[in-house]
Design brief:
By secondary structure, the protein is an alpha/beta fold. It is 36% helix and 15% strand. A 4-stranded parallel sheet has the order 2-1-3-4, with helices on both faces.
């Protein structure tokens, strides 16, 4: 398992700096990765029912990255499919229908995402889009899906674009805690632990990811943010931004950046500058990879939001069951991680939505089912979630994790903004949240 995890991490190091960048006209890699599924003829449904549904099958699809610059993230759609296969094998699918999940490889290219989405809708006749990956790619197809009445379930990014106005886009649902909510929670932690006189610098990726996060931090710390340092995903390093925040004499540094940038920034601050500043980082980088890049001794004490159990918490039955599923999946190089935890979360959420939608499954009943979910909790999640007609943002609670000995340890501090729209987010809207007692265990002693 450790060898598999290391293999996955080494691959991710090479790819992750481009996670949130648009890749223009990048094409699919024909020589590597998983071969996208062959085209199928559009399924036929009884008159008056939705496409992609028969008495025995429901077809979901996604544009995603199986190859290309973020191919290390293919564990998400691949393990999601493995989880659906597990449900098919052990439970006969959902309401008697087997789940077919078509994963089309856009290689993180927006033009490819457009053509493949049209294929999924017009040729394969999918019932719903599920967990499509990537903000720049999905922005190119979201209105097409809305115009064609295709439910757009649980998009695989935390951008506020998907969830800020359900009335404008009634068929789209998010999945991750949104980045503005994350930034607000980080800012609240700093306020609670470092006081109102704290000064803060923010390093942020200059796109929806970083800008949403910056906005959240400033909601909690409107006067305390004195140094704003954007960077472009094409920048070779971010050391100069760290140097500037050191010169600005900030007390805390918040980073909405990917693991490569975060790890390098922390290593530079600690090893090169000898700077003992408090670091807080986005959930995007709250993983073992960031610790490997920065060095365990450098990242010690860094905090950030988390929403699932950690893979080392094997005394928790749901975590061990997850590990067993990953090991049995047959996916080459797969090991339990925050990415497989996320994949199981969204897969379980989709299964629950289909279950509630019932035997008379239509696209309208699917959306109604999602909007009826109340206080539901996935097996590997820390907190329950609720959705509604005016709330398509399922991940509205996070715990604060802290790096100890190179791994993320979940602390007792957690915040929620359940039912609060993006427009109404504020520090006063955050509510304390109780962390499950079984989550408050660190990694086993070495």
């Amino acid at each position: 398992m450790r060898k598999s995890l290391l293999f996955w991490m080494l691959g991710l190091i090479a790819a992750v700096s481009l996670v949130f960048a648009a890749c223009g006209d990048d094409k699919k890699d024909e020589d590597g990765g998983e071969t996208p599924p062959a085209e199928t003829s559009a399924p036929t449904s009884p008159a008056g029912e939705s496409p992609g549904v028969t008495d025995t099958e429901v077809i979901l699809g996604a544009h995603t990255s199986l190859t290309g610059p973020i191919s290390a993230y293919n564990i998400i759609p691949n393990f999601t499919k493995a989880y659906f296969d597990h449900i098919n094998d052990t439970e006969g699918g959902v309401n008697g229908r087997m789940i077919t999940y078509l994963r089309e490889d856009d290689a993180y290219s927006p033009p490819e995402a457009v053509s493949l989405t049209r294929k999924l809708v017009e040729q394969d006749g999918i019932f719903a889009m599920f967990n499509a990956l990537g903000t720049p790619n999905h922005l190119q197809v979201i209105d097409y899906l809305q115009d064609n009445g295709v439910p757009d379930m649980f998009v695989a990014t935390g951008a506020t674009e998907w969830v800020k106005d359900p009335s404008a886009r009634p068929l789209v649902f998010g999945s991750n805690p949104n980045y503005t909510g994350e930034g607000l929670a980080i800012g609240k932690w700093i306020l609670d632990n470092m006081g109102e006189d704290v000064t803060v610098g923010v390093l942020y990726q200059n796109d929806d990811f970083g800008q949403d996060g910056l906005a959240g931090v400033k909601l909690a710390l409107p006067t305390q943010v004195i140094s704003e340092q954007p960077y472009e995903v094409t920048d070779p390093e971010v050391n100069s931004r760290i140097d500037q925040m050191r010169a600005d004499e900030v007390d805390a540094v918040v980073m909405f950046a990917t693991p490569v940038q975060v790890g390098q920034a922390i290593k530079h601050a600690r090893s090169d500058l000898g700077w003992d500043v408090q670091f807080a980082i986005s959930a995007v980088s709250m993983n073992e990879l960031t610790a490997i890049i920065s060095g365990a001794e450098n990242i010690e004490g860094t905090v950030g939001p988390v929403a699932t159990y950690m893979a080392y918490q094997t005394d928790i039955p749901a975590v061990q069951a997850h590990i067993d599923l990953v090991n049995a999946s047959g996916i080459e190089g797969a090991a339990a991680s925050v990415l497989t935890m996320y994949a199981q979360y969204v897969a379980e959420l989709m299964v629950e939505t289909l279950r509630i939608a019932g035997a008379d499954l239509t696209r309208a009943s699917l959306v109604d089912a999602a909007e009826s979910i109340t206080n539901w909790q996935c097996s590997v999640c820390l907190f329950p979630l609720t959705l509604g007609p005016d709330d398509h943002d399922p991940g509205q609670g996070v715990a604060i994790g802290e790096y100890q000995g190179g791994q993320v340890v979940i602390t007792e501090t957690a915040y929620r903004w359940e039912g609060v729209s993006v427009a109404d987010l504020s520090v006063d809207a955050l509510q304390p949240l109780e962390v499950p007692a079984d989550a408050l265990t660190g990694p086993p002693q070495q």
